Amino acid sequence: MIQVLSFYIFAALLIASAAMVIFARNPVHSVLWLIVAFFNAAGLMVLIGAEFIAMLLVIVYVGAVAVLFLFVVMMLDIDFAELRAGFVKNVPLGLMLAVVLVAELVLGIGAYRAGAVKLGTPDGAAPVNEVPNIEAIGNLLYSKYIFLFESAGLILLVAMVGAIVLTHRKSYSAKAQNISSQTMRRPQDATRNVNQPVGQGVEL
Amino acid sequence: MDLNTSLFLVRSEAILSFSALALLLLAAWRAEAGRLVSILSVAVLVAAGAYAGHFLFAGTQSLAFSGLYSNDAFANFSKILIYFAAAMSLIIAPPFLEKAAAMRAEYPVLIVLSCVGMGLMVSAADLITLYIGLELLSLSSYVLASFARTDGRSAEAGLKYFVLGALASGILLFGASLIYGFAGSTSFAAISTALDGDISLGLTFGIVFILSGLAFKMSAAPFHMWTPDVYEGAPTPVTGYFASAPKVAATVLMIRVVTEAFGTQVMVWQQIVIVVALMSIIIGAVGAIGQQNLKRLLAYSSINNVGFILIGLAAGTEQGIAAMLVYLVIYVAMTLGSFIVLLQLKGRDGDYKESLGDIAGLSKTRPALAATFAIFMFSLAGIPPLFGFWGKLVVFDAAVAAGLFPLAVIGIAASVIGAFYYLKVVKVMYFDDAVDIIAETDDKTLVWTGGLMALVNSPVGYFSIPVLGLLSAQAAKALF
Predict the structure, then answer these.
(1) Contact present, B34 and B105 (Cβ < 8 Å)
(2) Listed residue (B329, B356, B368) closest to B423, CA to CA
(3) Mutating which of A145, A155, A164, A170 best tests the B interface, going by the most B Cβ atoms within 10 A?
(4) For residues B267 and B254, what is the distance between their CA atoms, to the nearest angstrom?
């Protein structure tokens, strides 16, 4: 029962906050609604017993979105004084959202305690739930899919090489000390004897 | 299957990956290691190709890593072709990249890594392998396209390719998840079983999306929009590479997906392939007519050729697929040859020339170069004594044998339109007034490799038909 109730709450809030992402006029608000949407999606994942994916959603997406948020704040011309001006006006809305999130947390934990919703599988067999799903993913990732896992690592390597190739520039303005060339320097390379004739200027 | 056997079967990819890592380290410690790493990379590609050749002749045919990777004659045949094209684009690159101040060690390393991706693509027996291989290739390609980063056109080409390529990957991934959702497995064999009989709308959508994503990678119409811009902007050796190896890999992957995964739904994909083939032939032929830039012209030419290759797939028979492989081999020789000629079009002012007006009257000032280019143009047009004709002949023969008369007739009619612009290039070189701005080629490598490709395309190429026919037939048989 608690699962059905939580499902409808999470799903309704997910759709509502996804709509708010589009309709919010302020880009910063859009990003905040996106975070709410991700939290609700994570709640849905908890309901079907995929706690690992729920965690990934929160860590990766909310984490990445927080970085994105920073970029938005840095790149857009936002008047922060104006934003703060609405603080008192927006307090009730903010409190309400906080209450909703806490309620969701309680519901989510309650639903998780009550066990995952039973899902069908394509061939009709009941899913095997003997190992926690982080262990289950690990078992597959490092045995059956090891080859592809390593290949995916190569993709990340290419991304890294690409980023360096396309952006790294040798800086000519930066000064650095080259100790070996300093100690290799000999007097005969740096000085010369000049038999200076009288009455002429010194030529350097 | 135990891990050791699997590791033995993926040896080509293992050699390439570990060498790429070692070469990257070498490049990190040695400044100006571009040429050295290029030479070593060619050696590595030869070694990987030797293993593929060994597997091809030993007739090894087995799945590695519990059905994710297929090591069969079809994959090994394609790998040899891909490694050859990649090695050629490494050999011809240094003069151009040094001029653009972009001869850095990352160029060969990225090409080697993209070869790992292409190896995964042609050996894919699972949707996940397909996707990882494709992404490894695509990501390296985006970087390679903008490798001459100080050139605005190159940076634009890379960005354009990246944005559109990411969209195409997304479409393909969406299709793959639909297929997985409805079929319950990502393995090609299991998908083929699940797709037997009447299929739901979701699966049809999945098939369409996957084919669209692959058509983008092989630049088949109507997913060809990026091709002329990217080909024009990317450094010329990179364009030559894009037009050869990745195109082979995408085509081979398309063959594998439709025969192994969707083999039970021929009616669904056959009509898509027929439409894509005809559109590519016609758009490739008509679009090239007004082009003044030789790289754009060759881009349309590659779209046109992809259409002819897909005619073999539309036939859907073993003969058709063997014909496609033969066409691919000839196509790689023709395309690489054309780009080697472009690399020799260096003006007296030291800049590379790539416009049609610059080669006016080339036959008077540089007769050998003009003759070489004419051979490639006639061969691309499919004019009989040259080897390009044989590729078109076997493909149309397969289509007719499969009963696709209208397709073959329209294809032949459109190839006449295509012949117009190939002949226009020859006309400009031989009958227009000489502008005489192209300097003597100072790089002997380009002359020799260009001559070699011209020799393959000349009637001498017909001597390779028995070997080529046997190997391609053996490769195609592995799929059925």
Answers:
(1) yes
(2) B356
(3) A155
(4) 16
Is the Cβ–Cβ distance between A121 and B184 less than 8 Å?
yes
- The answer to whether the CB atoms of A151 and B120 lie below 8 A apart is yes
Instruction: Give the whole-angstrom CA distance, residue B133 versus residue A152.
Output: 9
Give the ipTM. 0.91
Give CA–CA dist B125/B190, Å, rounded: 10
What is the C-alpha radius of gyration for chain B, rounded to an integer number of angstroms? 21
The Cα B383–Cα B374 span in angstroms is 11
Tell me the two tokens of residue B157. 């080409």
Confidence of residue B376 (pLDDT cuts 50, 70, 90): very high
Whether residue A119 lies within 8 A of chain B, CB to CB, comes out as no
Of B161-165, B254-258, B353-357, the one with minimum mean pLDDT is B353-357
pLDDT tens by residue, B238-295:
999 999 999 999 999 999 999 999 988 888 899 999 999 999 999 999 988 888 999 9
Every domain of chain A with CATH number 1.20.120.1200 lies at: 1-78+94-118
In whole angstroms, give the CA distance from residue B269 to residue B272: 5
Using CB atoms and an 8 Å cut-off, which of residues 3-42 of chain B contact chain A?
Answer: 6, 10, 13, 17, 20-21, 24
Scored b (16 or more CB within 10 A) or e, B192-222 reads bebbeeebeeebbebbbbbbbbbbbbbbbbe
> How confident is residue A188, by pLDDT bands cut at 50, 70 and 90?
confident
Round to whole Å and give the CA distance between A148 and A136: 17
Digit-coded pLDDT (tens) for A58-105 = 888 888 777 777 677 667 666 667 666 667 777 887 788 888 888 888
Q: Token pair for residue A167?
A: 């952006």
Segment A21-58, tens digit of pLDDT? 899 887 777 877 888 888 889 888 888 878 888 888 88
pLDDT score at B458: 86
B345: Cβ–Cβ under 8 A, 6 or more apart, which residues? B294, B352, B353, B354, B358, B359, B369, B438
d(CA B108, CA B93): 10
CATH topology of domain A1-78+94-118: Four Helix Bundle (Hemerythrin (Met), subunit A) (1.20.120)
